[in-house]
Every structure is written in structure tokens, then in C-alpha cells.
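Hi there,

I know you've been waiting on this one. I reran it after we fixed the sequence typo, so this is the corrected version. Both the input and the resulting structure follow.
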Amino acid sequence: MEGPTYQCYDSDEDGEKSMKYIQNRTNWCWVAACKVAGEQYKKNFTEFAFTLENPETEVAVSNLDGLRTDIVKRRNGIYFVDAWQSAIARNADFLHGGLEGNFPGNDQMKMRGLKYVVLGDCESNLIQTVTLGTYDSAHSLLHDYCRQIESVFERHGCLIGNAILYPGGICHSFVALDWKKNEELVIYDPWDGNIGTYTIDEAFYTGFLSAQGKGILKWVQYIV
């Protein structure tokens, strides 16, 4: 893959991967995935230019539950998380009253999170978000929804791809960035910022290896 095509390649001044696109809490894979996929959409459709009102890129937190202290910043004994991730978590999560915490996200929260990144409004109908597939489907996601998934990449979009990772059995959200002409899928992992290239067979049928285990993309969210 040539050059820093995607914003999730971003790095700090010292060359380390930036906390901006790596999940800042252990259950925030969905949050970081919403940020990456939503920002990619705004790059392709520049009429959507929502930005946070607060110009600060980091916000202080007192809730340390699930905080990845090896990833986030610390100054004067205070931890800071990425401002976008904090905003997505507080606005898209409709179950915890706007509180920031280490809360996992369901499919509705992911669709709301995509709208928040693009529009700043989780309830807006200016764009439509969808979920395809289920974690327990007997069929491959590609078997059931091949044309819909291909069309996302034909529009130079990307999608949130969800997998159950084994041996741990945890649910984890990735971002499928590109479907290459040689039938390979480029996948971003919010856990460690790794961008891997896998065959279509690995991504949807036999499984691909990530830092937290091996999984198959079983269900997705994206902006129509």
C-alpha cells in the first residue's frame, strides 16, 4: 500500500503511533473505529465538515476504568484521552447518560457514532447508516452481502467490520479500509494501530490473525 493514504497512519512527533486513532480504553474499539470510518467519509465528501467546538485535541479524565495508560498522555499526574474519542463515546452511547467510561458499544451505538463524527448529530437523517450481518450467522457475510460491501469500496468508502476473536471469544471492531484489485482486504486494528492486508478468504471465511486473536468479519456498519 503506497504512502499515508488514510488518516489512521498518523504518528506523534517521536514517530510513535498516535493515540488519536488507537482505542484509548480497552472497550473503545468501536469508538476508534467510528472515528476512522467517519473521518474517511468526510475526506471523500467534503461538504460534511463537522469539527469539535473545543480546539483542544486531548481532554483530561478522572475515570481510569479500562484506560490504556501505555497509550494515552499523562501530564502532571493527570491522564488525557483523545478529544474525538471522548466525544464519540459520550454522544453515541445512549445507555449511560453522556458519561464517559469504559463501555462497550452495540450496533446502534456504532451507527450513531458514525453520524456523530460526520454531522455532530447522532439523530440526524442527512446520512444513513446500516448494519449488515450478525455475529452468529451460519453464512459468510460476503456470501449474503457481497454486492453491498463491494459498493462501499467502489465509492472509496470504508466500513466497520466486527469479529469474534478466538481463543478469548471477545467481540472486536476493526475498520476495513480498502478492497484491493488483487482481492485483498486492508484492515485497520484500533487496538494497536496495525494495518494488515489479508486475502478475502482470510477476512470472511478462514480468519485473520490480530493482536488479540484470530477472527472472521461477521457483521459490519457503514454510511450508505
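Quick highlight: The radius of gyration is 17 Å.

Best,
R. S.
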